[in-house]
Amino acid sequence: MTDGLLTSVVGSHAHPGWFVAGIAAAQRGEFGPVDLAEMLDDAVDLAIRDQEEAGIDVISDGEMRRAGFFTAEFYSHLTGVRALPSERLLGAGGHDQQHRFEVLEPIAAPNGLGVVAEYGKARARTTRPLKVTLPGPFTLSGRLRTGPGEVYLSRVAAAEAFVPILQAELHELRDAGAAIIQVDEPSPAIHPEAPADFAAMFNAVVEPVRGHVRLGAHLCFGNFLGRPLAARSYRPILAAMLGFEVDELVLEFANREMAEVELLREITDAGRDVAAGVIDVKNYHVESAEEVANRVDAILETGVPPERLTLVPDCGFSQTARWATTAKLRALVAGRDLVRGRPRATQEESRE
After folding, report:
1. One-letter-per-residue 3-state SS of the chain
2. Which domain holds residue 233?
Protein backbone atom coordinates (compact mmCIF):
# COMPACT_ATOMS: atom_id res chain seq x y z
CA MET A 1 0.00 0.00 0.00
CA THR A 2 1.17 3.53 -0.77
CA ASP A 3 0.99 5.94 2.17
CA GLY A 4 0.00 9.53 1.49
CA LEU A 5 -1.73 10.38 -1.79
CA LEU A 6 -4.43 12.52 -0.26
CA THR A 7 -7.08 13.92 -2.58
CA SER A 8 -8.24 17.53 -2.55
CA VAL A 9 -9.71 20.23 -4.78
CA VAL A 10 -8.32 23.50 -6.08
CA GLY A 11 -11.23 25.62 -4.87
CA SER A 12 -14.41 26.28 -6.82
CA HIS A 13 -17.25 23.81 -7.30
CA ALA A 14 -19.72 23.49 -10.16
CA HIS A 15 -22.72 25.84 -10.20
CA PRO A 16 -25.99 23.90 -10.51
CA GLY A 17 -28.79 25.39 -12.62
CA TRP A 18 -30.89 26.55 -9.68
CA PHE A 19 -27.90 28.42 -8.27
CA VAL A 20 -27.21 30.25 -11.55
CA ALA A 21 -30.90 31.17 -11.80
CA GLY A 22 -30.93 32.36 -8.20
CA ILE A 23 -27.86 34.58 -8.59
CA ALA A 24 -29.43 36.16 -11.68
CA ALA A 25 -32.67 36.75 -9.77
CA ALA A 26 -30.78 38.29 -6.86
CA GLN A 27 -28.97 40.64 -9.23
CA ARG A 28 -32.36 41.74 -10.59
CA GLY A 29 -33.45 42.60 -7.05
CA GLU A 30 -35.85 39.69 -6.68
CA PHE A 31 -34.22 38.27 -3.53
CA GLY A 32 -34.20 39.77 -0.08
CA PRO A 33 -31.13 39.39 2.16
CA VAL A 34 -32.59 36.37 3.94
CA ASP A 35 -33.49 34.71 0.64
CA LEU A 36 -29.95 35.19 -0.66
CA ALA A 37 -28.34 33.92 2.54
CA GLU A 38 -30.50 30.80 2.45
CA MET A 39 -29.55 30.07 -1.16
CA LEU A 40 -25.83 30.58 -0.51
CA ASP A 41 -25.98 28.27 2.53
CA ASP A 42 -27.69 25.63 0.38
CA ALA A 43 -25.05 26.02 -2.33
CA VAL A 44 -22.20 25.53 0.14
CA ASP A 45 -23.98 22.50 1.60
CA LEU A 46 -24.26 21.00 -1.89
CA ALA A 47 -20.58 21.60 -2.69
CA ILE A 48 -19.48 20.04 0.59
CA ARG A 49 -21.81 17.07 0.18
CA ASP A 50 -20.62 16.39 -3.38
CA GLN A 51 -17.00 16.36 -2.22
CA GLU A 52 -17.69 14.25 0.86
CA GLU A 53 -19.75 11.71 -1.06
CA ALA A 54 -16.96 11.38 -3.63
CA GLY A 55 -14.50 10.68 -0.80
CA ILE A 56 -12.31 13.78 -1.14
CA ASP A 57 -9.95 14.07 1.84
CA VAL A 58 -9.38 17.85 2.01
CA ILE A 59 -12.38 19.84 0.81
CA SER A 60 -13.37 23.46 0.22
CA ASP A 61 -16.66 25.35 0.45
CA GLY A 62 -16.71 25.40 -3.34
CA GLU A 63 -16.29 29.20 -3.29
CA MET A 64 -20.07 29.22 -3.67
CA ARG A 65 -20.51 32.54 -1.87
CA ARG A 66 -18.45 34.32 -4.55
CA ALA A 67 -20.62 35.58 -7.40
CA GLY A 68 -18.90 35.77 -10.79
CA PHE A 69 -15.68 34.20 -12.01
CA PHE A 70 -12.66 33.86 -9.71
CA THR A 71 -11.86 37.36 -8.39
CA ALA A 72 -15.18 39.10 -9.18
CA GLU A 73 -16.66 38.96 -5.68
CA PHE A 74 -13.67 40.55 -3.96
CA TYR A 75 -14.06 43.94 -5.63
CA SER A 76 -17.46 44.37 -3.96
CA HIS A 77 -15.57 44.61 -0.66
CA LEU A 78 -13.26 47.40 -1.86
CA THR A 79 -13.69 51.13 -1.52
CA GLY A 80 -12.27 53.51 -4.09
CA VAL A 81 -13.30 51.60 -7.22
CA ARG A 82 -16.07 51.97 -9.80
CA ALA A 83 -17.18 49.26 -12.23
CA LEU A 84 -16.51 49.94 -15.89
CA PRO A 85 -18.66 48.67 -18.77
CA SER A 86 -17.22 45.84 -20.81
CA GLU A 87 -15.58 46.97 -24.03
CA ARG A 88 -16.82 43.84 -25.85
CA LEU A 89 -20.27 42.37 -25.31
CA LEU A 90 -20.76 40.28 -28.46
CA GLY A 91 -19.06 37.31 -30.05
CA ALA A 92 -17.32 34.35 -28.51
CA GLY A 93 -16.80 34.60 -24.77
CA GLY A 94 -13.31 35.47 -23.63
CA HIS A 95 -11.18 36.89 -20.86
CA ASP A 96 -11.48 40.38 -22.39
CA GLN A 97 -15.18 40.44 -21.47
CA GLN A 98 -14.60 40.15 -17.76
CA HIS A 99 -15.19 42.81 -15.10
CA ARG A 100 -12.90 45.85 -14.92
CA PHE A 101 -12.75 48.78 -12.52
CA GLU A 102 -11.69 52.39 -12.50
CA VAL A 103 -9.74 53.38 -9.39
CA LEU A 104 -11.04 56.62 -7.90
CA GLU A 105 -8.78 56.75 -4.82
CA PRO A 106 -6.33 54.44 -3.04
CA ILE A 107 -8.12 51.15 -2.48
CA ALA A 108 -9.11 49.83 0.93
CA ALA A 109 -11.19 47.01 2.39
CA PRO A 110 -12.37 48.42 5.72
CA ASN A 111 -14.45 45.33 6.50
CA GLY A 112 -12.10 42.78 4.98
CA LEU A 113 -12.62 40.69 1.86
CA GLY A 114 -15.27 38.38 3.27
CA VAL A 115 -13.11 35.23 3.36
CA VAL A 116 -13.11 34.97 7.15
CA ALA A 117 -16.92 34.83 7.24
CA GLU A 118 -16.89 32.26 4.43
CA TYR A 119 -14.54 30.08 6.44
CA GLY A 120 -16.57 30.33 9.64
CA LYS A 121 -19.78 29.28 7.93
CA ALA A 122 -18.15 26.39 6.09
CA ARG A 123 -16.25 25.17 9.15
CA ALA A 124 -19.56 24.69 10.96
CA ARG A 125 -20.87 22.53 8.10
CA THR A 126 -18.22 19.78 7.90
CA THR A 127 -15.78 17.86 10.06
CA ARG A 128 -13.32 17.22 7.21
CA PRO A 129 -10.08 19.17 6.74
CA LEU A 130 -11.09 22.43 5.06
CA LYS A 131 -9.00 24.42 2.61
CA VAL A 132 -9.56 28.18 2.37
CA THR A 133 -8.70 29.95 -0.88
CA LEU A 134 -8.14 33.56 -1.85
CA PRO A 135 -6.39 35.30 -4.77
CA GLY A 136 -2.95 36.85 -4.61
CA PRO A 137 -2.07 40.53 -5.07
CA PHE A 138 -0.94 40.55 -8.70
CA THR A 139 -3.97 38.53 -9.75
CA LEU A 140 -6.34 40.93 -7.98
CA SER A 141 -4.66 43.94 -9.55
CA GLY A 142 -5.37 42.69 -13.05
CA ARG A 143 -8.93 44.04 -13.11
CA LEU A 144 -7.99 47.58 -12.08
CA ARG A 145 -7.30 50.30 -14.64
CA THR A 146 -3.75 51.54 -14.22
CA GLY A 147 -1.35 53.75 -16.15
CA PRO A 148 -0.46 57.43 -16.65
CA GLY A 149 -3.04 59.69 -15.06
CA GLU A 150 -4.53 56.87 -12.95
CA VAL A 151 -4.31 56.44 -9.17
CA TYR A 152 -1.84 53.58 -9.72
CA LEU A 153 0.76 54.18 -12.38
CA SER A 154 1.30 50.47 -13.04
CA ARG A 155 -0.20 47.08 -12.32
CA VAL A 156 2.69 46.38 -9.98
CA ALA A 157 1.80 49.48 -7.94
CA ALA A 158 -1.82 48.33 -7.74
CA ALA A 159 -0.69 44.86 -6.67
CA GLU A 160 1.41 46.35 -3.89
CA ALA A 161 -1.70 48.15 -2.63
CA PHE A 162 -3.38 44.77 -2.14
CA VAL A 163 -0.56 43.42 0.05
CA PRO A 164 -1.72 44.94 3.38
CA ILE A 165 -5.35 44.10 2.58
CA LEU A 166 -4.48 40.45 2.05
CA GLN A 167 -2.16 40.38 5.05
CA ALA A 168 -5.02 41.51 7.28
CA GLU A 169 -7.37 38.89 5.83
CA LEU A 170 -4.86 36.09 6.36
CA HIS A 171 -4.15 37.21 9.91
CA GLU A 172 -7.87 37.08 10.72
CA LEU A 173 -8.21 33.68 9.06
CA ARG A 174 -5.44 32.36 11.27
CA ASP A 175 -7.13 33.77 14.36
CA ALA A 176 -10.42 32.19 13.24
CA GLY A 177 -8.78 28.76 13.20
CA ALA A 178 -8.10 28.19 9.50
CA ALA A 179 -5.38 25.54 9.19
CA ILE A 180 -5.05 25.13 5.40
CA ILE A 181 -4.83 28.23 3.20
CA GLN A 182 -4.21 28.38 -0.53
CA VAL A 183 -3.33 31.64 -2.28
CA ASP A 184 -4.26 31.59 -5.96
CA GLU A 185 -1.58 33.49 -7.85
CA PRO A 186 -1.53 32.24 -11.44
CA SER A 187 0.00 35.50 -12.67
CA PRO A 188 3.64 34.28 -12.85
CA ALA A 189 2.48 31.55 -15.23
CA ILE A 190 0.23 33.86 -17.27
CA HIS A 191 2.46 36.95 -17.24
CA PRO A 192 6.06 35.67 -16.93
CA GLU A 193 7.31 38.81 -18.67
CA ALA A 194 5.78 41.20 -16.12
CA PRO A 195 8.29 43.47 -14.34
CA ALA A 196 7.28 42.18 -10.93
CA ASP A 197 9.08 40.28 -8.19
CA PHE A 198 6.24 37.82 -7.75
CA ALA A 199 7.90 35.87 -4.96
CA ALA A 200 8.72 38.93 -2.85
CA MET A 201 5.18 40.26 -3.15
CA PHE A 202 3.63 36.87 -2.44
CA ASN A 203 5.87 36.26 0.57
CA ALA A 204 4.98 39.66 2.01
CA VAL A 205 1.30 38.71 1.81
CA VAL A 206 1.69 35.38 3.62
CA GLU A 207 4.18 36.60 6.23
CA PRO A 208 1.52 36.90 9.00
CA VAL A 209 0.60 33.21 8.75
CA ARG A 210 3.77 31.52 7.54
CA GLY A 211 4.71 28.75 9.96
CA HIS A 212 1.27 28.84 11.61
CA VAL A 213 -0.89 27.25 8.88
CA ARG A 214 -0.35 24.92 5.95
CA LEU A 215 0.22 27.24 3.00
CA GLY A 216 -0.23 26.49 -0.68
CA ALA A 217 0.22 28.50 -3.86
CA HIS A 218 -1.91 27.68 -6.88
CA LEU A 219 -0.42 28.55 -10.26
CA CYS A 220 -2.40 27.69 -13.38
CA PHE A 221 -2.70 29.04 -16.90
CA GLY A 222 -6.27 30.39 -16.74
CA ASN A 223 -9.65 28.64 -16.91
CA PHE A 224 -12.35 31.19 -17.80
CA LEU A 225 -14.83 29.29 -20.02
CA GLY A 226 -12.38 26.41 -19.82
CA ARG A 227 -9.73 28.25 -21.84
CA PRO A 228 -6.13 28.91 -20.84
CA LEU A 229 -4.58 32.35 -21.15
CA ALA A 230 -0.89 31.63 -21.55
CA ALA A 231 1.80 29.45 -23.07
CA ARG A 232 1.43 26.43 -20.82
CA SER A 233 4.89 25.71 -19.46
CA TYR A 234 6.14 25.84 -15.88
CA ARG A 235 9.81 25.38 -16.75
CA PRO A 236 10.48 29.11 -17.44
CA ILE A 237 9.02 30.10 -14.05
CA LEU A 238 10.35 27.25 -11.91
CA ALA A 239 12.79 29.51 -10.06
CA ALA A 240 10.04 32.04 -9.35
CA MET A 241 7.72 29.30 -8.05
CA LEU A 242 10.39 27.92 -5.75
CA GLY A 243 10.79 31.43 -4.34
CA PHE A 244 7.26 31.23 -2.92
CA GLU A 245 7.58 30.48 0.80
CA VAL A 246 4.84 27.87 0.99
CA ASP A 247 4.45 24.25 1.99
CA GLU A 248 2.85 23.19 -1.28
CA LEU A 249 2.68 24.20 -4.94
CA VAL A 250 -0.62 23.40 -6.70
CA LEU A 251 -0.07 22.84 -10.44
CA GLU A 252 -1.97 21.57 -13.50
CA PHE A 253 -0.84 18.56 -15.54
CA ALA A 254 -3.78 16.47 -16.80
CA ASN A 255 -4.96 18.87 -19.51
CA ARG A 256 -1.35 19.16 -20.69
CA GLU A 257 -1.13 15.36 -21.10
CA MET A 258 1.24 15.24 -18.10
CA ALA A 259 3.86 17.37 -19.85
CA GLU A 260 6.74 18.51 -17.59
CA VAL A 261 5.79 15.97 -14.94
CA GLU A 262 9.51 15.62 -14.17
CA LEU A 263 9.37 19.10 -12.61
CA LEU A 264 7.46 17.65 -9.68
CA ARG A 265 10.53 15.72 -8.52
CA GLU A 266 12.62 18.90 -8.77
CA ILE A 267 10.05 20.72 -6.65
CA THR A 268 9.94 18.07 -3.92
CA ASP A 269 13.74 17.84 -3.94
CA ALA A 270 13.69 21.59 -3.24
CA GLY A 271 11.62 21.00 -0.10
CA ARG A 272 8.09 21.69 -1.29
CA ASP A 273 5.11 19.36 -1.35
CA VAL A 274 3.11 19.21 -4.58
CA ALA A 275 -0.58 19.04 -5.42
CA ALA A 276 -0.67 17.76 -8.99
CA GLY A 277 -3.62 18.06 -11.33
CA VAL A 278 -4.62 14.59 -12.55
CA ILE A 279 -8.20 15.49 -13.56
CA ASP A 280 -8.76 17.61 -16.67
CA VAL A 281 -11.39 20.26 -15.86
CA LYS A 282 -11.21 21.68 -19.40
CA ASN A 283 -12.44 18.44 -20.98
CA TYR A 284 -15.87 16.79 -20.75
CA HIS A 285 -14.29 13.39 -21.13
CA VAL A 286 -14.79 11.77 -17.73
CA GLU A 287 -11.66 9.91 -16.73
CA SER A 288 -11.78 6.26 -15.72
CA ALA A 289 -10.12 5.14 -12.51
CA GLU A 290 -7.43 3.48 -14.64
CA GLU A 291 -6.68 6.72 -16.51
CA VAL A 292 -6.26 8.59 -13.23
CA ALA A 293 -4.08 5.81 -11.83
CA ASN A 294 -1.86 5.98 -14.91
CA ARG A 295 -1.37 9.72 -14.35
CA VAL A 296 -0.51 9.13 -10.71
CA ASP A 297 1.94 6.41 -11.75
CA ALA A 298 3.61 8.86 -14.14
CA ILE A 299 4.22 11.20 -11.20
CA LEU A 300 5.46 8.51 -8.83
CA GLU A 301 7.82 7.16 -11.51
CA THR A 302 9.73 10.47 -11.36
CA GLY A 303 10.60 9.67 -7.74
CA VAL A 304 8.14 12.04 -6.03
CA PRO A 305 7.56 10.63 -2.51
CA PRO A 306 3.87 9.71 -2.20
CA GLU A 307 3.69 11.35 1.21
CA ARG A 308 4.59 14.67 -0.46
CA LEU A 309 1.96 14.31 -3.20
CA THR A 310 -1.68 15.40 -3.11
CA LEU A 311 -3.95 14.62 -6.06
CA VAL A 312 -6.24 17.37 -7.31
CA PRO A 313 -8.12 18.50 -10.42
CA ASP A 314 -6.17 20.86 -12.69
CA CYS A 315 -8.18 23.89 -11.55
CA GLY A 316 -11.53 24.80 -10.03
CA PHE A 317 -14.82 23.39 -11.30
CA SER A 318 -16.76 26.66 -11.71
CA GLN A 319 -16.55 26.34 -15.51
CA THR A 320 -17.66 22.69 -15.52
CA ALA A 321 -21.19 21.27 -15.36
CA ARG A 322 -22.10 19.61 -12.09
CA TRP A 323 -22.77 16.16 -13.61
CA ALA A 324 -19.24 16.08 -14.96
CA THR A 325 -17.77 17.56 -11.79
CA THR A 326 -19.20 14.89 -9.51
CA ALA A 327 -18.16 12.13 -11.91
CA LYS A 328 -14.62 13.50 -12.12
CA LEU A 329 -14.36 13.78 -8.33
CA ARG A 330 -15.35 10.13 -8.00
CA ALA A 331 -12.80 9.17 -10.66
CA LEU A 332 -10.09 11.07 -8.77
CA VAL A 333 -10.69 9.05 -5.61
CA ALA A 334 -11.13 5.76 -7.46
CA GLY A 335 -7.87 6.24 -9.35
CA ARG A 336 -6.02 7.10 -6.17
CA ASP A 337 -7.46 4.00 -4.51
CA LEU A 338 -6.18 1.80 -7.35
CA VAL A 339 -2.66 3.09 -6.76
CA ARG A 340 -2.95 2.86 -3.00
CA GLY A 341 -4.06 -0.74 -3.22
CA ARG A 342 -0.98 -1.94 -5.04
CA PRO A 343 1.93 -3.48 -3.13
CA ARG A 344 4.61 -0.84 -2.53
CA ALA A 345 7.33 -3.07 -3.97
CA THR A 346 5.50 -3.32 -7.29
CA GLN A 347 5.36 0.47 -7.56
CA GLU A 348 9.02 0.92 -6.73
CA GLU A 349 10.00 -1.72 -9.31
CA SER A 350 8.09 0.23 -11.98
CA ARG A 351 10.32 3.25 -11.32
CA GLU A 352 13.56 1.35 -11.91
Report:
1. CCCCCEEECCCCCCCCHHHHHHHHHHHCCCCCHHHHHHHHHHHHHHHHHHHHHHCCCEECCCCCCCCCCCCHHHHHHCEEEEEECCCCCCCCCCHHHCCEEEEEEEEECCCCCCHHHHHHHHHCCCCCCEEEEEECHHHHHCCECCCCCCCCCCHHHHHHHHHHHHHHHHHHHHHHCCCEEEEECCHHHHCCCCCCCHHHHHHHHHCCCECCEEEEEEECCCCHHHCCCCCCCCHHHHHHHHCCCCCEEEECCHHHCCCCCCHHHHHHHCCCEEEEEEECCCCCCCCCHHHHHHHHHHHHCCCCCHHHEEEEECCCCCCCCHHHHHHHHHHHHHHHHHHHCCCHHHHHHHHC
2. 6-68+112-351
